[in-house]
Design brief:
The structure is a single chain. Helix 1 packs antiparallel against helix 3. With 60 residues, this protein is mainly α. It has one domain. The chain has three helices and no strands. Helix content is 87%, strand content 0%.
């Protein structure tokens, strides 16, 4: 369950880093596609973090 949380944080951190450094050229070339991709990645990372926390809380 710790692994799940780490992956969720890593996904979120990667996108924050890439967007902060303006390393996502698709924002100008394919804005609609990258928007949906970013939303999917954000929801996935949040689900991983919440799921991992839920697993830890359920084990105690």
């Amino acid at each position: 369950s710790i692994y799940i949380i780490i992956i969720g944080i890593a996904m979120l951190s990667m996108w924050i880093f890439l967007l902060g450094k303006r390393e996502v050229p698709e924002l100008t070339t394919k804005p609609t596609q990258i928007y949906f991709h970013l939303v999917a990645e954000l929801l996935t990372s949040i689900a991983l973090i919440i799921g991992g926390i839920g697993l830890i809380m359920n084990q105690s």
